[in-house]
Amino acid sequence: MPADVAPLPAGIYCPVITFFDDSAAQALDLKLHEQHCEMLAAAGCHGVVVMGSTGEAVTLSREERKQLVRGAKAAVSRAALPNSPGLIIAGTVGAQSTQQAIELAVDAAAEGADYILVLPPSYYPGPMTNDALQGFFEDVADASPIPLIIYSYPAVSGGINMDTDLLGALARHPRIVGIKHTDHDVGKIARLAAQDFGSPFTVLGGATDYILGTLAYGGEGAITGMANVAPRVCVEIFNLYNAGKHAEALKYASVVSRAEWSLGRGGILGTKWAVTYANGYPEKSALARKPLPLCPEAAKAYVRSECEGVLALEKELAKAAGVNGV
């Protein structure tokens, strides 16, 4: 591995939502963005992902992306715990050309990001053969100032589902350091985690409802939107499992799984509302960028009821950590 390429540490990473104000322009609420990132770092998350799918990256301008990375870097630097690396991962979600992906990677690095998270281009899915996809990821990795993490998420990538052979070939590239599996394919996780690629390659799940499966098969954590809602619970599952306390980890994981299902059913609208509700943020903080509508009242009620258990656990852990206001 080149000297300038840092391996991606194992852990729990939170893909943060993006907060907008309620003006006609729906400008970024950077104050709440920093407050939220600071809270996540203080809760023990190993890093945050900005401009991911949960962060509505496809709605953001180039300048807004820079502002979000800059704000996250400042916030996490203030609050990261001694045993947490406090890393910033920048999504290049929605980049449809190699040139654009490199441009966004350069911007992210200049603002302090440590890694980029890259989806396959998918507007023209037909020509995206394994050879084309391998060329895209390797070209971006070669040109990016910071290491690359593969983002496998067929649901937002025109159905492109990168197979184990392609992912294994990419894992051998010295500047490609890991993968986020939002394909939710534990078999792929197992196959990749079992291989030696000649340099560190970190395999992360894309949710916490199968975090124990990820860890049991040799994966090393998750990038999970649930950490916006219950960061301490997510980190506790990771820590308990790695301490060999598997039965205790399962108790937490079972509660998380129920809550995560409700976020998945609610989509981005339900997720944003859940984050607002869980953290006591103003109601307007749940606004998604137009033309996305408001979260339906029925979805709010469903998410609230299904997240009751995980929020109780989060409150217990916060109290045990001496956090005020819980």
From TrEMBL:
UniProt-annotated binding residues for pyruvate: T54, I223
Cross-referenced PROSITE patterns: DHDPS_1
UniProt-listed CDD domains: DHDPS-like
Keyword Ribosomal protein part of the UniProt annotation: no
Alphabetic keyword roster: Lyase, Schiff base
Active site: Y151, K180
Family statement: Belongs to the DapA family.
PANTHER family assigned to the protein according to its UniProt record, in alphabetical order: 4-HYDROXY-2-OXOGLUTARATE ALDOLASE, MITOCHONDRIAL (PTHR12128:SF66), DIHYDRODIPICOLINATE SYNTHASE (PTHR12128)
Protein name: 4-hydroxy-2-oxoglutarate aldolase, mitochondrial
